[in-house]
Amino acid sequence: MPIEQRVKIAAEKADLTPEEIEILSSGGGLPMEVADRMIENVVGTMAYPFGIAVNFRMNGRDRLVPMAIEEPSVVAAASNMARLMRDGDGIKTSTTDPVMIGQIQVLDVPDMEKALDALKDAKDALLKLANQQDPVLVRFGGGARDIEPRVLETEVGRMLVLHLLVDCRDAMGANAVNTMCETLAPVVSEITGGRVLLRIISNLADHRLARAETTIKKESLGDEKVIDDIIAAWAFADADPYRAATHNKGIMNGVIAVALAVAQDHRALESGAHAYAARNGRYTSLSRWSKNENGDLVGVLEMPMAVGIVGGATRTHPTARLALKLMGVSKANELAEVMTAVGLAQNLGALRALVQEGIQHGHMRLHARNLVVMAGAEGDLIQKAVNELVASGEIRFDKAQEIVKRLKG
Ligand code: NAD
Predict the structure, then answer these.
(1) More exposed terminus of the chain, fewer Cβ within 10 Å: N or C?
(2) DSSP assignments along 277-338, one per residue
(3) Total-model pTM
(4) How confident is the model at residue 366, as a pLDDT?
(5) Of 274, 317, 363, 399, which residue is the catalytic one?
(6) From atom 2 of ligand 1, which residue's Cα is the shortest distance away?
(7) Based on C-alpha coordinates, what's the Rg of the chain?
(8) From 13, 217, 249, 384, active-site residue
């Protein structure tokens, strides 16, 4: 479809206003004055392609999935795999409560046992003080829920680390949690007799998990051998960190593309995902693929998903607000579920391509477009050059240069 037609369909489905449609074609959707308020020393803005993955059905509901990404073939792979998943029962998604962890590091504790007991006794008072820092969060049903003291043996000796568990509702929560930890610090110091050093959120958000699960009918994948090969490919990632890093990168292709479209803190998501993948002492796959009794393929992805739809840049960036509307998301946990579903679809796309034709087949066809543009093709010539390059079977830059030079005459 031409771009205008795609925009028209998306606008109809998501009920976009003329102003919102205008944002899509404004070359990034971020006015300079808004950018200038977001970070320091702003001299410009940097746009990414913003595409929509289709065919996603989650918990029986269809959703358009906006993705911002510079890598070709990700949006196509997500849409293709979502179509296969749709032929089954779609994707089942769920989340735990949106609980984040704040850490308060305490050094030089004179009596560890006494300190741990004293903290246990002070739990209610500490939670009350934490919640006084964010009455809005409490009003929305969130707030500090629990404390968990831990003792760490480190290079500089024993230290006490107090975890503060905070239900962040629709916020990512870093500001809320950090403020609470900083407020509790002097009180914790007094209770334990130690010296508080760091007071900061943990990005290993292992209380705030999102899960996506799907069953793909064996007929949709061709034959049972493909399913066995996909499971063998997953087992490779499960057993080997060298493979797991790339396997999980494929998952993050989907997760981060949606995160960028809605202006999430994607560094927080990346660090949380990889730390979670290594939680048992060895880095492994975030997903799991197996076969059910019918011989169908079953995939599950469970990972930390610290996302927010209030606060951060999500409310300030006009395209991010628009992306939430396109997705039909009104709660942070729904966003977390969409992102996990896309991660699972992306994972399947990579596994299927790898066990069949190899990753370069689909990738390089799309990459051909980049190559001919790099080689100087413009306007109508781009598609002609892409067709020739693909037909040549040698999708390389030197070949692209040769074709573009010839077509330009
Ligand atoms: P925030 O402080 O801007 O907004 C959250 C606040 O919004 C809540 O504390 C609450 O008072 C209010 N609120 C209104 N409606 C709410 C609802 N329905 N649910 C929950 N809260 C509601 O943002 P934040 O989420 O606390 O912080 C996110 C920002 O912190 C991101 O920009 C992130 O980049 C940044 N950050 C991250 C780290 C880290 O990950 N290590 C560290 C520091 C800062």
Answers:
(1) C
(2) HTTTSS---SEEEEE-TTS-EEEEEEEE----SBSTTTTT-HHHHHHHHHHT--SHHHHHHH
(3) 0.91
(4) 73
(5) 363
(6) 175
(7) 24
(8) 249
